[in-house]
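> forwarded from #structure-qc
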């Protein structure tokens, strides 16, 4: 943790003067320190993560629980051929493995709190190492970074091109989390909530139809243990407390794309592609399937 704290301190101080202070080489200096989550993250990333011709996208998705980060990140990952890495999935995988961390993690997750930066970076590093071993390049991160420290550490080890901040009206978020279902067999994500919010105060009506499972998944649906009303409210509160500095971090670097979801997937997906200048992408029809 000492190295993380030192890096955090150096990055925070530097942000006021030289934003480029937290470079790969400054992290390399830190590699001489005892093994740390930060060093693991750095070495798990491609050797040259800096922007360059031909390099795949390195994007992050920000947004409240239930906003649809997973849905849109997965679609973009299909479209662009880069891995979609959701830190929530990594945490759930760790929980289901019943390894040494699982009881500690399950207590934190089921209270709607964030797990430590060090543990989440360690899980992410392992996933990125796998990606690297498979020859995958680029990534779309979903659910990371969630704290300013995570954003600073990530920026210190690689270049993030874009942070897409998905936004949805508050009334829809809780309903969407409570309607979320997962197929225990194929891992498919569905939503049984039908959201229909009347237009008022200048806001248009918002209609989001359910995303129902195919017949073969219907009897295998499960609900996440942290998708109860009480835990969802806590997660929204934690998100609202932590998100502003992360958004500001990317805004001040000119990397933040704010995107207000206008409704369900049929309305939102083409508009998101347009906002990302991907609307004439030749594969978009199949990716949306
Ligand atoms: N970047 C992260 N930092 C800390 N904890 C995380 C992070 N990503 C996921 N988690 C943990 O995993 C839980 C589930 O994450 P996720 O599936 O992304 O949920 P959400 O639907 O709230 O966005 C979070 O509530 C948190 O406990």
């Amino acid at each position: 943790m000492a190295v993380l704290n030192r890096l955090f301190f150096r990055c925070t101080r530097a942000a006021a003067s030289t934003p480029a202070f937290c470079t790969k080489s400054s992290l390399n200096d830190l590699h001489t320190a005892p093994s740390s989550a930060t060093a693991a993250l750095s070495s798990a990333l491609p050797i040259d993560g800096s922007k360059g011709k031909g390099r795949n996208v390195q994007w992050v998705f920000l947004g409240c629980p239930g906003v649809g980060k997973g849905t849109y990140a997965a679609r973009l990952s299909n479209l662009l051929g880069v891995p979609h890495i959701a830190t929530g999935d990594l945490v759930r995988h760790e929980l289901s493995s019943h390894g040494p961390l699982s009881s500690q993690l399950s207590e934190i997750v089921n209270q709607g709190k964030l797990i430590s930066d060090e543990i989440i970076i360690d899980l992410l590093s392992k996933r990125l190492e796998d990606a690297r071993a498979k020859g995958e390049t680029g990534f779309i991160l979903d659910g990371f970074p969630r704290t300013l420290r995570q954003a600073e550490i990530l920026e210190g080890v690689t270049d993030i091109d874009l942070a897409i901040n998905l936004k949805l009206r508050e009334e829809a978020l809780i309903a969407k989390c409570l309607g979320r279902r997962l197929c225990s067999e194929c891992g498919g994500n569905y939503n049984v909530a039908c959201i229909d919010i009347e237009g008022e105060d200048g806001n248009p009506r918002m209609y989001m139809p359910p995303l129902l499972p195919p017949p073969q998944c219907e009897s295998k649906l499960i609900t996440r243990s942290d998708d109860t009303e009480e835990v969802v409210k806590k997660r929204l509160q934690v998100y609202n407390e932590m998100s502003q500095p992360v958004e500001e971090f990317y805004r001040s670097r000119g990397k933040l794309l704010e995107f207000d979801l206008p409704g369900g997937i049929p309305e939102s997906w083409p508009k998101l592609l347009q906002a990302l200048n991907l609307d004439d992408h030749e594969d978009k029809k199949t990716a949306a399937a």
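QC bot note: Residues 52-169+240-287 form a domain with the Rossmann fold fold (CATH 3.40.50.300). The first strand starts at residue 58 and ends at 62.
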